[in-house]
Riboflavin biosynthesis protein RibD
Amino acid sequence: MAEAASIENAMHRALDLATRGPATGVNPQVGCVILSPDGTPLAEGWHRGAGTPHAEVDALAKLPAGAARGATAVVTLEPCNHTGRTGPCAVALIDAGIARVVYAVADPGEHSAGGADRLRAAGVAVETGVLTDAATHLIEDWLVAARLGRPFVTLKWASSLDGRAAAADGSSQWITGPAARADVHRRRAAAGAIVVGTGTALADDPALTARDDTGGLLPTQPLPVVVGRRALPAGAQLRRHPLAPLFHPGDDLPGLLRDLRERGIRRVFIEGGPTLASAFVAAGLVDEYLVYLAPTLLGGGRLALGDIGVTTIGEQRRLQLAAVDRLGDDLLLTARPAPK
Ligand code: AOF
Ligand code: ZN
């Protein structure tokens, strides 16, 4: 039987293969490696997006009939159990005579889940827990959509070392340096939408475009979304965004996120201000926090967040630190809600 080290190597390879597929659209990125019983790679496959074969079927198709008998399939996502645009991968693996399946992440899909049970029922050895964190990270936006029916939400702010997001007079440009700003623009381009409140839209007159360091537009632009009831002036920069801004007058943030998901948006970037950011935090709708921390002091200016429903220490929102990166003279802290 293929040993743990060759299984882990194959999962690393399957993760690489998965990234060849599209990171947008309704389907996840999935990769698969088929190993002979002694651990030699026999075939590789990956998913190329909705309507095309799944990774397991893509890999099996590269083998002559009978060649997968007794083999191990290493796949980044639990093989599916449904007939959608393609047949169930669990059945394709069983029919090919696969003896063992190792997958990294369970499929939470309403219709597709249950592949592991189906494989076990057919006598296939099924294991999980290999590179699960990396595989989860790769498809985190798709997993949030499958579990919660909404896009993955990133909340970003920049603050001074004393935790201020603006000076006492409200001015906030610029706290961080060029490397941190370039990082924000790259992340804007990778998001489907950028959301701001009308307070920020009126006070800062942001363009909400994703730009390179010469000010040119990056090839993909997020949909600008403005939440609140106040109208923007005709001359606002946002009115010149290449995509017509979406105006959302209500406080119904889950409704807004559902609407964005229905438009095919998988990642949303919340850029403030403090009222909107606090509302997302209070509603438990933030999946990832990006805090750009600049070595400067603003004493007395406003904070990044206001009321998030925490009044006593026992109610604090504990986060997990996922990464610390230095960007020029600034730090980027990436944090996620602590698992419950
Ligand atoms: C797998 N392997 O490579 C992928 C899976 O509409 P369909 O038929 O393409 O099914 C899409 C669902 O199948 C998707 O929501 C997810 O649950 C699963 N994706 N499963 O076994 C794959 N891409
Ligand atoms: Zn499948």
